Amino acid sequence: MKIAVFGTGTVGRALAGAFSRLGHEVAVGTRNPEETAARTGRGAMGAPPFAEWMAEHADIRLDTFAAAAERSELVVNATNGAASLEALAAAGAANLAGKILVDVSNPLDFSQGMPPSLNPVNTESLGERIQASFPRARVVKTLNTMNAGLMVDPARLAGGDHTVFLSGDDAGAKSVVTGLLRELGHRDIIDLGDMTTARGAEMLLPLWLRLYGALGTPDFNIKVVRGG
Amino acid sequence: MKIAVFGTGTVGRALAGAFSRLGHEVAVGTRNPEETAARTGRGAMGAPPFAEWMAEHADIRLDTFAAAAERSELVVNATNGAASLEALAAAGAANLAGKILVDVSNPLDFSQGMPPSLNPVNTESLGERIQASFPRARVVKTLNTMNAGLMVDPARLAGGDHTVFLSGDDAGAKSVVTGLLRELGHRDIIDLGDMTTARGAEMLLPLWLRLYGALGTPDFNIKVVRGG
């Protein structure tokens, strides 16, 4: 499948690399490819310069949001939640129309200090805002509830015995995304329902952030334990 | 231990009954004991009249919030989240001073229809509001993330292999509550940290409510899977 991954941070790199290894044709979308490729400093989370990562992934193109989206069948939004709508607008509604748009971002608001709060929250979600802003895109919210390493290699924790959630209004898109999640190694995939259920998945983040603090590692995930 | 359980609904009954079976001296607190005992109709969730439940639990007293709190060492708030501060005010700050106050409620707001939203949310929690309103009470938030049956009998699901969270500012109170949770059968107890971490535990509810919808049963719980 032709996949565009928006975002050059830890999550974008992890997903782009994993889909490429699985044999998909992957482009990474960014605002300004020349500027991204020319950066020499480390990223906000200490990630090495993107050019270094690109050199190790010669089969992955770096493109503008618009060009990456135009040439893809499926777009993954792995940009910063606060900048996601802007990134998708830069891609262009026409380039997203009819496409599956997998939103893995969280609307974290760092403006009031740590830990971040959520915005929107409770009576809306970023997933819903994206679907409302791009009504012809087939948006699926997923993977936002775990760290990037587990997104692409769930088996590294408890042999993969933990849960990933799906929300979205398009059953066909959820079916395709379920297939991709299985390719990545996810075994316990719960379809929460329509896009409003993304509120539940996004509102797990405040607990996730406190668990990160309490456990001292991001290498954990939620398993929904139910009766047999 | 002398335990007062505030609330005569499903959660209050489950906790009061369980603590009594474990040998604790239990009183149930309610606004107006005579009125509660005189009710003949079923409760909002279809629960039988409280008098029927009392008849099967002759060792449990029914008392006013104030009298139940005054005679107890530990108070459990299992009232409706929207009415919790009012119920605790009726108990009287003096009757809660120095006491461990276990808050198992959720600030669910049903005013905008189903599923309920949360209020407060994100930048505050009901646990924090309770602690701020009763600064001399030793508040511990716990058990709010699962249904009443699992609160008191975790082993009925996957042999108890799932997680319960604790939040609170008083380490001694959290230690006592951890002991009570172990008596109930809880094995995986994660101390999230101070009372602000109750935001995380309360904000799990939107996901819990969607999982209830997706799974068709409230008999599930979250397990935090972490590396060995």
UniProtKB/TrEMBL annotation, chains A, B:
Organism: Pseudarthrobacter enclensis
InterPro entries registered for this protein in UniProt: NAD(P)-bd_dom_sf, P5C_Rdtase_cat_N, STEAP_metalloreductase
Domain Pyrroline-5-carboxylate reductase catalytic N-terminal: 2-107
Record key words, sorted: Oxidoreductase
Residue ranges crossing the lipid bilayer per the database entry: none
Source taxon at top rank: Bacteria
PANTHER family, sorted: DUDULIN-RELATED
Official protein name in the record: NADP oxidoreductase
GO molecular function, one term: oxidoreductase activity
Chain coiled-coil ranges: none
